[in-house]
Amino acid sequence: MLFVFICFSRNVNPGMMFVCKIPYRNSTCLIQHFTITWEKDEREVVAYSIYVVDDDSEMREVLSLALESKFQVKTFSTAGSAIEVIKEDPPDLILLDIGLPDMSGVDALREIKNLHPEALVIMVTASTDIDTAISTMKLGASDYMTKPINVDALEISVRNALDKIRLRKEVQALQEKYLKENIPCFVGESNAIQDVMQFVDKVAKAVDTPVLILGETGTGKELIASAIHYKSPNFNGPFLTLNCSAIPKDLIESELFGYEKGAFTGAKAAGKKGLVEQAADGTLFLDEVGDLSLEAQAKLLRFLEEGEYYRVGGTKKLQIQTRVVSATNKDLVAMIEKDLFRRDLYYRLAVIKVEVPALNNRRDDIVPIARHFLSEFSSKHGRSFTGFSLETEGYLKNHQWQGNIRELRNLVERGILVAQGPELTPQDLGLEGGSEGVSPQAAEGDGGIPILPDEGLDLQALEEHYLREALKKAEGNETKAAKLLRMSYYSFRYRRKKLKDLQS
After folding, report:
1. Cα–Cα 20 to 30 A to 295, which of 120, 159, 189, 226?
2. What secondary structure, in 3-state letters, does 174-219 show?
3. What's the predicted TM-score (pTM) here?
4. Structural domain boundaries of the chain?
5. Domain 360-444 - what CATH class?
6. Segment 300-319, tens digit of pLDDT
7. Which CATH class is domain 43-171?
């Protein structure tokens, strides 16, 4: 092993460059020359992490020396030890040797990609076998390098990989900015919505998998669907919406799959593409999917299972890649029992289920969401307000939001249009003196609501007690139990699941 120590006789500053060439049996040397560069690069403000996985200690040291001046480098002698760390702390880039003692680099690559599909991996090997190189690239390797390693070539390969990461992070930042500015249901820090957001992040990446969104009317199911789309790799593709309840049953099939020339009376002469085709390489959102006819359900099932369909009046089989996200506020399981919804379609749509919590179940988010709408509508209507009064915020927190986010949105817009002062008051929102709202004072004892005892109470235990009592009286039927507690089926499901999670 050849070690070289370099000492500077004077101070060095950013921008100075030093080159050190080390001739060392050029035919077999690991590095033909080593370049030391100290430059100020704005792209390197963020420290990228690189894992080097190689059973050759000299190679690990060489690669570490070549990279550690600009990157955070960790080295591993086995695939297994690297994978254990990657599970919890995935790096930006992995340099992976093919010939490892515990498993082949190809198998290690496959496992890494299963853990983190977006992981960037550069394969390193002493072999020049082109078949091996091709196989690793098919598995998702970003590049392939042979030993001896040329540092200049290594730097180019690493830079290319990190440029991909930088672009990916920029896209993610733009996506997050869009979501925060345009999707109010994502505003807030409650555990309920944070859980949903984290789940959306995961499911968005699986572009071939259908998603079923469940929740009460007005909870923002379409907004969740758009979030899934804009967080997905297909975010540049179209996002189209079809309200299944708003289309006549005899037209729903042609809306979904299109029609050919002369398919029916009134059809366009040139025919028409359906929404499934128009949303190619993007997302089709089917709102109120529970309102589809059984015939339309059968056609949709075929498309989801086979990826193929026929236009109305057509004989040519068409294939397209379109992600289907659906939503409903109905109890599809109960509809299945009544033969109103196909069981096989339900299981196909509900490969992934996202349950959106009602606004009443995320009260800490009510005021932040209201402020979001205040900013949005103030700009829209050309008005300016300092915010909500403390009294108004109290009313907002204690109001029973039967219409969820949609109701809150409408009340805030109403307030902006009628308000005269710098702050929005309960009167502006229509919350005071009527059945629409519950005052802070009423929530503390008036109207038949028990007063909080001086010694306090166990709210979790109380909630659990009433959930159990309702289920007992409803003989285990969750829909009936929810009605007894004057809440929606999905609110009941959410509260019951939340309690189970807390107890587990």
Report:
1. 226
2. HHHHHHHHHCHHHCCCCHHHHHHHHHHHHHHCCCCCCEEEECCCCC
3. 0.57
4. 43-171, 184-357, 360-444, 459-503
5. mainly alpha
6. 999 998 888 888 888 888 88
7. alpha beta
